[in-house]
User: Fold this.
Amino acid sequence: MNTARNTIRSLGNEPPILADGRRAPDKREISFRWLSGTFLTGITSSVLMGVALFAALDGRQQLAIPAEASASVPSDHDNDSVQRGKRLLGGKIVAMPTDRKIMEVSTVVHEGNRELVRRRPFAHVKMNLAADHIAPEAYPKFDPLAIFASSEAPPQPGNRTGLIYGSNVESEVSLQTLAFPTSGSTYAYAAPMTLEEVEENVRSNGSVLTAGDAQLSALYYVDPQRFSTSEDVDLTSGLSARVVEENMSVTAPEPITPHTREYADDIIPVRRPMSIAEAMTQVGYPEGKAKELSGYLQARLGSDKVSPGDVIRIGVIQEGQMVMVVRASLYQRGQHRVTIGLDDHSRFVDAEEPAMLDAVASAFSDQPPQIMAGRDLPSVYDGIYRAALSYGMSTDMTALLVKLLASNVDLQAQLRSTDKIEAFFSVADKKGQASKDSELLYVNAHFGDTDTRFYRFQNADDDNSVDYFDQDGRSIRQFLLRSPVPNARMTSGFGMRSHPILGRALMHTGTDWAAPRGTPIIATGNGVVEKAGWDSGGYGNQTLIRHANGYVSSYNHQSAIAKGVAPGAKVTQGQVIGYVGSTGQSTGAHLHYELIVNGTKVDAMKVRLPGGKSLEGKALARFEDERKRIDTLLNAQTSNEVASK
Assistant:
């Protein structure tokens, strides 16, 4: 038996035989060839990994972040993955939609004791703020003071647009409302008709009654000969016959259900060089179906590439949850190039050019630009201005929109790919451009997880004041702002502290806001000025404003009080009422702001503030009527749109 010891002994213990006179290597030495080989292998591996990563990114220099990934394929559906028995395409596919609709709406305007009903153009826009909008004009830079403040109390605007009228009119109509006469009459009453006369009128007029384009025959419940004279009564008067083609059946219309079979067109504008399959997959088509159609089109075009300005038109039949592509067309520079259609054997063959759609010709003018990557998105403030101006809003209307959203939206935050605004406003003409007389009637804004919806309403019970309210009739404006100097910084809060002048611990009954001397101070809410002048107790130039529900705001150490701010004057939220200074017992330019509730000074930064005013009674009823008219109008417009992706 061989043991381990015998095995070792059999191998020998002599040094190896070296040829050509070489000596055995020293174990302490380093092999240069091994080291260089290892080093070159590492470099080669790094280069190959870099090339593979660059190819995977398709030339992009940054990895995609979730916002970019979601922005690449805009969709209203959370899950567009393809499963057995599920739709191939998310959402109902119809012709390419537009994001701006210009419509003529009947409105009523009060002029004295008359009401004029006339048709006016309105714009209904749906703005995706993440799109690369280009503002046609310059807009003001972000300034928190300019968002809220104004140099003087703005006058109450009149309702230049008018109220939405419940019916359509062909031209201008004048309505005059008069009190119903309760006593006396200037008109003679006609003699009452007998029962026989009523029956005769029903019989004679019933045969000529019409409903649309179909005539109705009268139902004779009495003997018509009862009222006949020497002339015979034609019982067939008013009856008509309908002639139909031979072998044709006439049935009642089939009700439209989610399983109704319908045809639709999907318009895909091409904005950069790419393949046909890539253009289809980007808008949600499965990769297999996109490659199949691309192969058929390539066989006829000689190439599967498309260029900017080309339009791909896909015809589909949708029935319930199933979608089948039955036709595909390609347009280059507005001209039709090729069309293929599905035959009875489920194969694509050459087909005739389909009838032209407006959506094909306007695919680029009506579609917003491509959505930008997440890292390139601007701030919310810039996104609102760029989109609103490019969609026809004026600078003043956009400033109002920003001001209304400022209390609920962080304007300096970066946009998200899902941020969007729907707006409804009056315009000057069918071009959709707002003028100085245009008014913003409705806004539905979505930012992140926050949805803000409000309507314009003129309250006749409150001096015809105009404000914006949510769907429940509550004002969207804050009751009081937290900071009276928007671009200042808070240097001292509410509570015990060491007094900077007296040198002992005292209760600090307000908040200090540091800002350069002369910085404007704004009113934190609507109210009436109680005091505007010098305070001998150390507050210097002081202004007290009384608000609703027992709230009083106090502004102290001002360098000067704004013109027109005097006891008894009404001020509005955001109105400039004074300027930062250091009057009274003060060590530097700042504003000492106090909030007093029912005579007690409270912490303005922590106290729970009530919401804005709410409509009640008749005003609430009128607002709800106006809101319903706007909702009905917009819902009807949405249902009449040909497309939605």
Observations:
- The domain at 489-610 is CATH 2.70.70.10 (Glucose Permease (Domain IIA)).
- The first helix runs from residue 4 to 11.
